[in-house]
Please model this.
Amino acid sequence: MPSFRLTSAARCLWAFLLLSPLLPAAHAQRAAGPGRPTDFLDPAFHKGRRELLRQALPAGSVAVLFANPVRNRANDVNYLYHPHPDLYYLTGYDEPDAVLVLFKEPQTLGGQAGVTEALFVQPRDPKAELWTGRRLGTEGAKQQLKLQYVADNTTFATADIRWAGFARIHFLDLPTDVRDDTQDPADLFDLVAAFRRQAAVPADYDARREAVYLTMQREGVVNATALRPYLENQMKAQPALATDPYVLGYLQATTDATRLQALTTRPPSRHENTSLNDALDALRAVKTPEELALLRRAVRISAVGQQEVMKALRPDMGEMEVQGLHEYIYKKYGAEFEGYPSIVGGGNNACILHYETNDKPRLGNDLILMDCGAEYHGYTADVTRTVPPSGKFSPAQRQIYELVLAAQEAGIRECRAGNEFRAPGKAAQQVVAAGLQKLGIIAAPEEMRRYFPHGTSHYLGLDVHDRGAYGPLQAGNVITVEPGIYIPEGSPCDKKWWNIGVRIEDDILITTAGPENLSKEAPRTVAEVEAMMARPSALDALRLPALK
Model:
């Protein structure tokens, strides 16, 4: 799935031990009711993550993380709830209306001394559970999640947390579009309001502005040359910064001494989210053996999905039907969700990067691009294959496909620890530019971006575009390599290339021995794809009655 995310570099927090693809990691049951899967991450994993994050906090700090909002789909129907990836990563808790508080130094809370972590969860409610499913409640969370301190979320507003005593209060972006359930005194709306009030978060607090301030503090003297254009760009993106006295004072400084003096005038604030984001980026970017076991399963399910759909594919199928086959296979293997809306585009639709409508009723002989990923216990794959429904590539389709494949191979070769994050993308772009020019589709290499407008790589994990520092690649990173060429109808080239969109995407584990393609089971070469499509499908016998 193409990504456009950019962020700053951060250092790895621990050494990574490579896990054999068949070695089971330590898992434990974490469920609100009987009969659920038993291979969720062990509470010890989450405890270790919390402790690493707490160690990264500066002295005198507290960190606060909220659950995701419940999202309404229509009228009285909500979307199936998806936990906040950071909260899930740190606790294993997957219910709404919760808040986690981590203290750098031990506190006394609810009469309990030595508290460094507190989780406030929604209480048990038999009436609500009859309609929407079982809840862990405080006792269930204590027993299964093993946090040091767990309390009912209705007590968060009155909990004896001495907010005024913390030198720094760290939090992620606070949700501002949350519905207030007036019948629930401790829903997410109320939890955020209580935090804002008790932690004295200014009404005009702006996380983006604070991030600029923090960048100025870090780079203002040691990297002044690069900081100036950064600030000028930020002033365009955030017009309020154009009149900000702190920013203007720094820009008016002309020597290191005057810059240092300007930096001392930063408006005082105990509230910020950049440091917490940076720490979570560094932690989540390097996968542990336990995480890799789940991620490998998600990727393998997705690769098998590509195999089986290739076998079953026919020109008379529609995009939605193909999407359904992928997602059926995910469910068959126990994947709870798709990691993102499936992208299944035939012909010109394949030239829309994040095409999600998937409603073309008949594919015909156009290529079909299938960018799909299973999510298994929170960890998502991201695998793309582009294939001919007829089972055979046309000459033009084959030429574009093999160019994209050559670009991907070049990108994968650059997936080595120590290389810059953009190295795979740069290698792929060079191949695509040269190839398009050779085919006569472009006249000069700089025109390549018309047909290959995105990067090749993003981190993969609890989010399809996962957290990470986007600095040098490290052993334990899992990233995508996904070059593409998209030639929509009306493009300024020979019409024989029109309506060809090709993307090939694999999920690559960075190891000390080189790149490992986790999704290699999904056929990639023209010969492999055509051979797979010639095989019989278990779905061939599936014939539903016609609807009249």
About this structure: Residues 4-29 have pLDDT under 50 and may be disordered. Residues 289-312 form the longest helix (24 residues). The first strand starts at residue 27 and ends at 28.
